[in-house]
């Protein structure tokens, strides 16, 4: 996991004036909106006795701790301690960490790191979000492995005829070979454009949209640090874009939050049908990703074997290691943030059910 990047932490529609906890980067954050509709993100831990602020409530655009009622502004500063007299000064250390926030592409993004604003990597471009010819829907699901494995799976082209033989990859089994391709720099990421030929209609939902048994498919696969992938596929009249945030909960858990664009049948009432089909495809991926060992992509390139079709994944590993070498890794911070008994941070809602 890396610091000094923008992390999409939740769908915008899921953030309201009711505090909401998210667990990301092995830490707990609280999200809420003020009366102007602006999203606020704070560390979900009161500095007094460590209670989860997400169990509290929003009052005057501030958040109250559920334990002793301490009141924190959006910048994290405590402005009221009910147990104290009004004349008692509030300690300077009575504050929680706050985070820079943006809303873009239907997500709330927080910046996690210590870079000044002018030096922060940008949120990657997604012009398709404003394209009126594309219909979009949203999906998220959990994968029980490290986000680096989930990310690499999303940009792995050679697994399609194997893992997805019973869904959209059926037409590629006759010729699974991947031609050599070039890696293009994308600024904080990289991409590859690959052409393949499908020799049969895909199985499942997409067979109804394939006009011919044989068709040419052009795909552009892109990754952006720290945890984003984008897969653009074009075949005849069909255009599909899959923009994915591989949300790192901890070393063993990833939540993949996706925007799925399509150029055909742009009707919301069909979304559930498409999402059901995509869920089947992602279940095929998850089964394999969760079996990979070690769970975290190895830091040493020689720890696993590589072939020509792995060029884009290798580009990801090399770029990731570039910023690890700059001191942007969070692995040591994660170990420090773990509980004394060795367990990772868990949601406060889980603690309530113990």
Descriptive overview:
- The chain has 354 residues and is an alpha+beta fold.
- It folds into two domains: 5-116, Rieske [2Fe-2S] iron-sulphur domain (Rieske Iron-sulfur Protein, 3-layer Sandwich); 127-202 and 212-326, Naphthalene 1,2-dioxygenase Alpha Subunit, Chain A, domain 1, CATH 3.90.380.10.
- The chain contains six helices and 17 strands.
- The protein has helices spanning 147-154, 160-163, 271-289, 311-325, 331-337, 348-352; strands spanning 5-11, 20-24, 27-33, 39-43, 57-59, 62-64, 71-72, 78-80, 101-104, 107-112, 135-143, 184-185, 189-198, 215-224, 228-235, 238-250, 253-262.
- It has a seven-stranded antiparallel beta sheet. A four-stranded antiparallel beta sheet has the order 5-6-7-8, with no helix packed on it. It has a three-stranded antiparallel beta sheet with strand order 1-10-9, with no helix packed on it.
- A hairpin with a 3-residue loop joins strand 12 (184-185) and strand 13 (189-198).
- The longest helix has 19 residues, at 271-289.
- It is elongated.
- Mean pLDDT is 89; it is low at 332-343.
Full CATH superfamily name of the largest domain: Naphthalene 1,2-dioxygenase Alpha Subunit, Chain A, domain 1
Briefly, what CATH class of the largest domain? Alpha Beta
Mean pLDDT across residues? 89
Share in helix: 10-25%
List the helices and strands and how they pair.
Layout: E1 5-11, E2 20-24, E3 27-33, E4 39-43, E5 57-59, E6 62-64, E7 71-72, E8 78-80, E9 101-104, E10 107-112, E11 135-143, H1 147-154, H2 160-163, E12 184-185, E13 189-198, E14 215-224, E15 228-235, E16 238-250, E17 253-262, H3 271-289, H4 311-325, H5 331-337, H6 348-352
Antiparallel strand pairs: 1-10, 2-3, 3-4, 5-6, 6-7, 7-8, 9-10, 11-17, 12-13, 13-14, 14-15, 15-16, 16-17
């Amino acid at each position: 996991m890396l610091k000094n990047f923008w992390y999409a932490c939740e769908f915008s529609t899921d953030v309201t004036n009711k505090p909401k906890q998210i667990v990301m980067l092995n830490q707990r954050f609280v999200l809420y909106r003020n009366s102007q509709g602006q999203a606020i993100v704070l560390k979900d831990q009161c500095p007094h006795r460590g209670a989860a602020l997400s169990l509290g409530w929003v009052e005057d655009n501030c958040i109250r701790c559920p334990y002793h009622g301490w009141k924190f502004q959006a910048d994290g500063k405590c402005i009221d301690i009910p147990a104290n007299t009004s004349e008692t000064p509030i300690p300077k250390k009575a504050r929680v960490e706050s985070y820079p926030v943006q809303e873009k592409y239907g997500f709330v993004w927080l910046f996690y790191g210590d870079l000044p604003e002018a030096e922060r990597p940008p949120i990657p471009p997604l012009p398709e979000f404003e394209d009126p010819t594309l219909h979009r829907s949203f999906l998220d699901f959990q994968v029980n492995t490290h986000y680096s494995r989930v990310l690499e799976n999303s940009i792995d082209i050679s697994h399609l005829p194997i893992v997805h033989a019973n869904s959209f990859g059926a037409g590629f089994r006759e010729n699974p070979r991947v031609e050599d391709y070039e890696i293009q720099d994308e600024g904080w990421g990289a991409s590859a454009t690959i052409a393949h030929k499908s020799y049969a209609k895909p199985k499942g939902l997409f067979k109804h949209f394939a006009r011919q048994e044989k068709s040419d498919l052009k795909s552009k696969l892109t990754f952006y640090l720290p945890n984003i992938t984008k897969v653009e596929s074009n075949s005849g009249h069909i255009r599909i874009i899959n923009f994915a945030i591989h949300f790192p909960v901890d070393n063993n858990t990833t939540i993949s939050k996706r925007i799925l664009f399509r150029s055909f049948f742009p009707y919301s009432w069909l979304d559930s049908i498409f999402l059901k089909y995509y869920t089947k495809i992602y279940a095929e991926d998850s089964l394999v990703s969760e079996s990979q060992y070690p769970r975290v992509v190895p830091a040493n390139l020689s720890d696993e074997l590589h072939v020509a079709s792995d060029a884009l994944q290798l580009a990801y590993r090399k770029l990731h290691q570039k910023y690890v070498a700059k001191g942007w890794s969070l692995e040591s911070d994660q170990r420090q943030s773990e509980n004394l008994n060795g367990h990772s941070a868990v949601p406060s809602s889980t603690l309530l059910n113990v």
